[in-house]
Structure to design on (201 residues):
DNA sequence: ACCCAGGGTCATA
DNA sequence: TATGACCATGGG
């Protein structure tokens, strides 16, 4: 009914890693502006980002907020990515090892790591974010604030055999419909079902 | 003027 | 382990 969401919005695979950092506690509309700034400078690949002066890098991503910190985090991530051998080498790691490697980067926390695992490496991982807590608590699916790992592993265990596409869509829909600024379009008034209402599709 | 947005690190207790 | 301060922009 609501999908497919078609995540992650990016032109290249590495751009997903960049977007995952830029969107930390930030509206995606602002991330798009920052990505456009990077695109203008030709700074969407790890080599070119590392080659850029950090102050200018920060200026390019200014609209995404926290630009000084995020400029440093992007450089940390790029340095790690190249030193690790890029996608060909990283793809050979099992999901647990790859997750640990991502978490070793200063600026990459659990949610950012899991974003990258699902959307750039197509691993079956459940991403827990603020919307997940809000929605799961509201639905009574969790009694109190369990830890991040407990909820992630719990949902993954509850969906045995689910592939990366499943977790891709699940997280995307939780974000899209958990967003207070993204209310569903109202029905036309004559209709009672969204499926059949021409105004709300 | 305020609240919110696809978090994470660091210092402190 | 668990809080709190800090980072900072743009739209509703």
């Amino acid at each position: 009914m609501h999908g497919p969401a078609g995540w992650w919005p990016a032109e290249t695979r590495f751009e997903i890693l960049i977007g995952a950092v830029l969107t930390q506690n930030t509206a995606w509309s602002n991330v798009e502006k920052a990505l456009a700034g990077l695109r203008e400078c030709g700074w969407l690949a790890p080599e070119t980002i590392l080659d850029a002066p950090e102050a200018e890098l920060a200026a390019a991503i200014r609209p995404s907020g926290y630009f000084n910190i995020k400029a440093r985090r992007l450089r940390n991530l790029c340095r790690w990515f190249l030193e690790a051998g890029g996608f060909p080498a990283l793809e050979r790691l099992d999901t647990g090892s790859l997750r640990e490697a991502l978490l070793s980067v200063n600026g990459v926390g659990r949610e950012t790591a899991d974003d990258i695992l699902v959307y750039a490496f197509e691993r079956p991982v459940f991403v827990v974010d603020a919307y997940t807590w809000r929605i799961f608590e509201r639905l009574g699916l969790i009694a109190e604030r369990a830890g991040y790992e407990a909820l992630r592993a719990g949902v993954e265990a509850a969906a045995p055999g689910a592939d990366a596409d499943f977790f891709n869509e699940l997280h995307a829909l939780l974000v899209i419909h958990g967003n207070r600024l993204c209310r569903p379009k109202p029905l036309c008034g004559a209709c009672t079902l969204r499926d059949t209402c021409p105004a709300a599709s």
